[in-house]
Each structure stands twice: as C-alpha cells, then as structure tokens.
Design a protein that fits this description.
Elements: H1 2-24, E1 47-54, E2 59-66, H2 76-82, E3 87-91, E4 95-102, H3 107-111, E5 113-118, E6 121-126, E7 134-138, H4 148-156, E8 158-160, H5 163-175
Parallel strand pairs: 1-4
Antiparallel strand pairs: 1-2, 3-4, 5-6, 5-8, 6-7
Length: 176
C-alpha cells in the first residue's frame, strides 16, 4: 500500500514538473514587476488619448492621436517624466490615456463672449448670453448712471466677436 501511494506521488510530481516546464519556459516579462508597473512600451501604433478638464466651465476636451516618434519606445515611467503635469490613467501597447485639470474655460466658451450683467455684476463673460455664463472680467461700471435701455441690454447681454467690437460696446455704454 505504501508503494502504491509513493508511486502515485512520484507520478503526480512528474506531471506537475512537466506542466511547469511547458509553461515556465514562456517569457513572462511582468512576473517580477511590482504591482501597477509594467515594462510595456509605447509602440508605433499606440494611440495617445489626452483629456483636458476645464474647471471654470466644467467641460472636457478629448484629443486622440497616434503616438509621436519622440515617445515611441518609452516606458510608463518615461512618459510620466515627459508629461509631469498629466496623470496617466491607462498605459498599454494600444492606448496611453492621460488627463489634466486646468483652471480655464474651453475653446468653445472662449469663442462666444458678451458684455452683460449677471447677479448685479457688469462684466465680460464667456459663453452665450442666454446660457450659463462665466465671468471673465469684472467691469467697474455704475449702471445707475445708464439709461434704462442700456441697463436692459446689459441684462440680456451684448455679444461681440472681436476686441474692437467689445471696445465699441464699452465706449457706447460709457457715453450713455
């Protein structure tokens, strides 16, 4: 009976050793890496996905492009060093995802601006007059000295597309 168990144990060990040899010889580069690290590198076909979150308007912009030649071959740590201000949210051979939050407004809000009055503050605002506006610049303008028509126009908002147009609006308000 002892011989029988010994034979079974030897057979079991041989089977396990065979399995280990078959799988153990495969190159597994990440085995000894600390958790969360990888030795994967950016490839020529890796996509870079950069997300910018604009705190002022609470909008995000996502840009996707193929990895540039200067980052091809880099590891996660090397990319992190190059993009110090950014947080790497994902890193593998297919996609490197980075994100950053900035204290600014997005391009869409910067395109649309107006002179207006919101919550009693006369100023230059980002956005469209009939939407949630973001104060860009506070103007020291005494609205009590303006005619009622000008006060109403400020409440509605006076859009402009150029710096010249903005200056004409402000000069017109000061003349009233």
């Amino acid at each position: 009976m002892k011989d029988r168990y010994l034979t079974m144990a030897v057979c079991f060990c041989m089977v396990m050793c065979s399995l280990w040899m078959m799988t153990g010889s495969v190159d597994r580069p990440d085995v000894d890496m600390p958790i969360g690290q990888t030795n994967e590198r950016v490839g020529e076909n890796t996509m870079f996905e950069q997300t910018i979150y604009y705190r002022a308007c609470k909008e995000s912009e996502v840009m996707r492009e193929k990895a540039s030649s200067k980052v091809v071959g880099m590891t996660r740590d090397e990319v992190a060093e190059l993009y110090r201000e950014w947080q790497i949210t994902s890193f593998d051979k297919d996609v490197v995802a980075l994100q950053i939050a900035v204290d600014d407004v997005c391009k869409e809000h910067k395109k649309e601006q107006f002179v207006g009055m919101r919550d009693g503050i006369v100023g230059i605002y980002y956005g469209k007059p009939n939407e949630d506006a973001i104060l860009k610049e506070n103007l020291t303008l005494d609205t009590t000295m303006l005619i009622e028509e000008a006060q109403e126009a400020l409440k509605v908002g006076i859009p402009f597309r150029s710096e010249e147009e903005k200056l004409r609006i402000l000069e017109g308000l000061e003349a009233r």
